[in-house]
Amino acid sequence: MDAKTLCLAALSLGDASxxxxxxxxxxxxxxxxxxxxxxxxxxxxxxxxxxxxxxGTAQAQAKRPDKKVFRLTAAGRARLEAxxxxxxxPDRFRxxxxxxxxxxxxxxxxxxxxxxxxxxxxYDRELEAMAACEAEVTLPGHRFVFDFGLTYYRTMRAxxxxxxxxxxxxxxxxxxxxxxxxE
Amino acid sequence: MDAKTLCLAALSLGDASxxxxxxxxxxxxxxxxxxxxxxxxxxxxxxxxxxxxxxGTAQAQAKRPDKKVFRLTAAGRARLEAxxxxxxxPDRFRxxxxxxxxxxxxxxxxxxxxxxxxxxxxYDRELEAMAACEAEVTLPGHRFVFDFGLTYYRTMRAxxxxxxxxxxxxxxxxxxxxxxxxE
DNA sequence: CCCTCCATGTAAGAGGTTACATGATTAT
DNA sequence: ATAATCATGTAACCTCTTACATGGAGGG
Lengths: 183, 183
Hints:
- Two copies of one chain form a homodimer.
- With 183 residues, chain A is mainly alpha-helical.
- The first copy, chain A, is 61% helix and 11% strand.
- Chain A has helices at residues 3-12, 18-26, 38-50, 74-85, 96-102, 109-133, 140-174; strands at residues 54-61, 64-72, 92-94.
- In chain A, a hairpin with a 2-residue loop joins β1 and β2.
- In chain A, α2 packs across α3 (38-50).
- The two termini of chain A are 43 Å apart.
- The interface between A and B is large, with 61 and 61 residues.
- β3 (92-94) of chain A pairs antiparallel with β3 of chain B, so a sheet runs across the interface.
- Chain A binds a DNA duplex (28 and 28 nucleotides) through residues 2-3, 17-19, 36-40, 42-43, 46, 61, 63-68.
């Protein structure tokens, strides 16, 4: 799903400004399957408005910049429906972290240990953030994706915690293989 | 990691042609954290050669098109080392599948069921492919990422199998909510 | 005083995807 | 026959990402 479809989906849950859409997309469970920045959202909204798929109204606010609140048009709703009927493309996952772990036989042991510890801490933060907003997730589809996220973060956290020592021991046993980076 | 860094990493495991690099990148555990096509690899190799980070030699082959086998230069190895020292950026995960499940309250029940079943079948295929090449994964870092992938596919498969019925029942209990797509 | 939140956008550039172009060999 | 594998590349396009630009309000 491109930025335009994501904006349509966000607006199908209720009228919102670009800023509010960004916040929605950053929260679980929306943030479990995409990561979209302002630089994609604002141009997407401009194009959607040009195509007549959404309509925006400027709203003055007390002590705040004006905001432009968008809502889906009938055409926009139809476009979203059409997008939902397409067969899903493959998932794409890109991870610098796992790339580094893949290459970790060329890295100093303490760096590897610190990378894993930092990642465990990140997962813990994410799990705390999820606990804080769990009550707001009510629709069955949203809940399904939310629980998928929970499962993912918990499983990955456990994997890292359980295999950290084993990795460090295997490295030691294998000896200093083709070390690219000096220790 | 961009396509250039991935090519350097692949070549650090042994000399290879563009076609062979693509095959390596498509196999577990390399395919667990990236997804890079020919359209990225060939231009990346051209630019790396221009920068003197790799060197290529054309090799004639019997009954096959010529292939250009690349190897890392000292400068290329240094560049890879430098890349490995950068702090990792955030993971990025994009999934049409989970987007559809997120929106699944607007989809017919049988479509949802079929989407989940198809995905379970995909995970099964991936797990079979992994079993077939498990023996080749020997380096500790490679093994760590391989087992991460195993854990991921198994966990996700189990999640889908375990929660399929619950999702369908909750949808039924909630009634036909703001159905975008007619059943 | 500084940071974060609110709020919207543009511009340039990097990077990647898709389709095109070609063609022999081998397995089903 | 037909599909897959081997093998390399280009060109156009599209999409993001990043940085810039602006600025008040409120909390620590």
